[in-house]
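Review form for a predicted model. The reviewer records the input and the model, then writes brief findings.
Reviewer: anonymous (R2)
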Amino acid sequence: MITEEIFEDIKKQAPNLKPFGAKLKFVVDETSIVIDGTGDSNEIRMSDEEADCTITASSETIVKMRKGDLNPMMAVMMGKIKIKGDMTLAMKLQSLI
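Model under review:
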């Protein structure tokens, strides 16, 4: 399943990102992935919990961004990615996918 691949990719990249002092939730095809940057390191888990920022996208959109076929900012402007909450946290996710 594509969402599991996305989850595994985020888990691999998370240690490279400095903890950002907040929780970011990424919803892909109804599956929630939380990146908890409130501790000494980023923790990644599949969980539908409250977050400071929630980003919602389809797996198709994520695949296109990963391949370089879709710019993340264009995806937001086209409505393919929806962001609720702290927009600056959303910018941090770009390096995870």
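Findings: The longest helix spans residues 2-13.
Further findings: The chain has a mean pLDDT of 89.
Recommendation: see findings above.
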